[in-house]
Design brief:
It is a single chain. The chain is α/β, with parallel strands linked by helices. It contains 14 helices and 23 strands. It has helices spanning 2-6, 27-37, 56-59, 64-67, 115-123, 131-141, 168-179, 211-216, 268-278, 284-289, 330-343, 428-444, 465-475, 525-543, and strands at 17-23, 44-47, 78-79, 92-93, 142-144, 158-160, 195-198, 203-204, 207-208, 225-228, 232-239, 242-250, 253-265, 281-282, 296-297, 309-317, 355-359, 370-375, 389-397, 405-407, 418-420, 477-478, 508-510. The strands form 7 sheets. Strands 1, 2, 10, 11, 12, 13 and 23 form a 7-stranded mixed β-sheet that branches. Strand 1 (17-23), helix 2 (27-37) and strand 2 form a beta-alpha-beta unit. Helix 6 crosses helix 14. The two termini are 19 Å apart.
Length: 553
């Protein structure tokens, strides 16, 4: 029996029936598959459209420069619809493909957001989601190199550590922020978020600690866990108003997986609503427009898309201690490779975003409304590098008023979804971005950064607010933190309830960043893992009283 559960694509009939089927092997799906299969009495199947993501390319942080800029085997490489608020431009939206999802290609920055973000969720009627409620699950996930305390865990699967390579410009940037009048912090996830400092990373011994490494690899030999990769989900299966499984395509073969207890959708903020809609769960008129039979008229599916709009301030510099383009200095790059291979240190351990901070652009605000990322490398609105030397300071608006939606492009499961974040559709966001740009310029003009100061490549010629706004519309993009499209709540527009069960459909939950009712003030990877830890605990609690379905094939 153990061998049969370990076989990918086994023809044995009973090997395709499990207690739980987890659709999507991103950060959340990896957590859920691990936690549910810890109980040997549960049989679990994790199905993922991409591959294993265990290669040197994924493990080596600096090689993110090859995985992010374009669609490839590790990256869906989506594009938004033309954004009127950005002058009709489309915006590139990389999303991780394969086990670990976007945790396999992101910047590894580990922040949780502000404690009041979760209290806001609870205040909206989501009982059990206050900061006090979710903190134990943050700690459960974490193996922090600093050790455990009231805010941090020391025994979890996800290794959180200090960067192994910090360019001196990072320290100069933090000093410049302090010189500009801001505080310094050693822990963005502790008592106080506000301030500037060095970020902790989900990194172990200089290598990326993606969710697959932390949660799936230790569990892959369990006889009750089956992992099916390179298998693209086409639609969910139902018996009446209960989800019973998923149909997927793997190569030329179409197959089905059946669930006795529950199907858990963990495909992310773009593809979870897409899969629900392809399966007949969504706004009735939209589904019928694409020839899809309606299983449940749930108008909130795909709505409430939130993302962190970001301004980019690249500066040219003549200082060659900055990273520069590694292809321009092959000997230095070769030395970095050797350092990494033999010591797991040096330039290849970095994706360059090790420092930053959280600030209030208006001191009357109760919490930070902007986050900064400093990078000792010059690029523009993508991870692609420019020739020469320079640095970037990127500032993102943490709680934008603008929001958008995800719709179906067609009823074809192979078609990418229509992604419309609605960037700057609410003019109030422009005022905050303008403050962020001017604050960033002030920090970059400080004496502590004088050694690196150079030409402002975007805002240097702006003289009026109109000039700044024009430049913002021309160059702003995303921090790649989409959330909210299967919103949690108790109102009619909510997609899932506080236990992440899809409204009106039995045996079906959504567990990923799409359930966030509001966007959190920080990077979204850590909150997504927390969501999956908490969801797993709720699923196991509910298991005691939910009767499993009799599945006959």
């Amino acid at each position: 029996m153990a061998a049969l559960f370990g076989m990918v694509g086994s023809a044995a009939r009973y090997a395709d029936v499990f207690d739980y089927v987890v659709v999507g092997g991103g950060a959340a799906g990896c957590v859920v598959a691990n936690r549910l299969s810890e109980d040997s009495r549960n049989t679990v199947c994790l199905v993922e459209a991409g591959g294993w993501n265990s290669s040197f390319m994924i493990r080596t942080p600096a090689l993110t420069v090859f995985t992010v800029p374009r669609a490839n085997r590790w990256n869906w490489g989506f594009e938004t619809t033309p954004q009127p608020g950005l002058g009709g431009r489309t915006v590139y939206e990389p999303r991780g493909k394969g086990l670990g999802g976007s945790s396999a290609i992101n910047s590894m920055v580990y922040t949780r957001g502000h404690r009041t973000d979760y209290d806001d969720w609870a205040a909206l009627g989501n009982n059990g989601w206050s900061f006090r409620d979710v903190l134990p699950f943050f700690r459960k996930a974490e193996r922090n190199a600093r050790g455990g305390d009231a805010y941090h865990g020391a025994a979890g699967p996800m290794v959180i550590s200090e960067p192994r390579y910090i360019n001196e410009a990072h320290r100069a940037f933090v000093a410049a922020a302090v010189e500009a009048g801001f505080s310094q912090t050693a822990d963005f996830n502790g008592e106080e978020q506000e301030g500037f400092g060095i970020y902790q990373l989900n990194q172990a011994d200089g290598q990326r600690c993606a969710a697959a490494k932390a949660y799936v690899e230790p569990a892959r030999s369990r006889p009750n866990l089956r992992i099916v990769t390179n298998a693209h989900a086409r639609r969910l299966l139902f018996k009446g108003r209960r989800a019973t499984g998923v149909e997927y395509r793997r190569g030329a073969r179409t197959a089905q997986l059946h669930a006795r207890r529950e199907v858990i959708v963990s495909c992310g903020a773009f593809q979870s609503p897409q899969l629900l809609m392809l399966s007949g769960i969504g706004r009735e008129a939209h589904l019928r427009d694409h020839g899809i039979e309606v299983a449940s008229n749930l108008a909130g599916v795909g709505e409430n898309l939130r993302d962190h709009i970001t301004v980019f301030l690249p500066y040219a510099s003549s200082d060659k201690t900055l990273v520069g383009n590694p292809f321009a200095r092959p000997l230095k790059s070769f030395a970095a490779v050797v350092d990494y291979l033999f010591r797991r240190k040096g330039l290849l351990t970095t994706v360059a975003a090790e420092s930053g901070g959280f600030v209030r652009t208006d001191l009357s605000l109760p919490r930070p409304d902007a986050q900064f990322f400093f990078m000792p490398i010059v690029g523009f609105n993508t991870p692609r590098m420019r020739n020469g030397y320079g640095f970037m300071l990127n500032g993102c608006l943490l709680r934008p008023e603008s929001h958008g939606r995800v719709n179906l492009r067609s009823g074809d499961w192979t078609a990418a979804p229509l992604i419309d974040p609605g960037f700057l559709s609410d003019e109030r966001d422009l005022a905050v971005l303008l403050r962020i740009v001017k604050l960033a310029q002030r920090i970059c003009s400080m004496r502590k950064l004088a050694r690196y100061q150079g030409r402002d490549l975007v805002y240097g010629k702006c003289r009026s607010d109109i000039d700044f706004v024009t430049a913002i519309r021309r160059t702003a993009g995303t921090a790649h933190h989409p959330v909210g499209t299967c919103r949690m709540g108790s109102d009619a527009a909510a997609v899932v309830d506080a236990r992440l069960r899809v409204r009106g459909i039995g045996g079906l939950r959504v567990v990923d960043a799409s359930i966030m009712p509001t966007i959190i003030g920080g990077n979204t990877q850590a909150p997504t893992i927390m969501i999956a830890e908490k969801a797993s605990a709720m699923i196991l609690e509910d298991q005691a009283w939910i009767r499993p379905l009799e599945v006959r094939q």
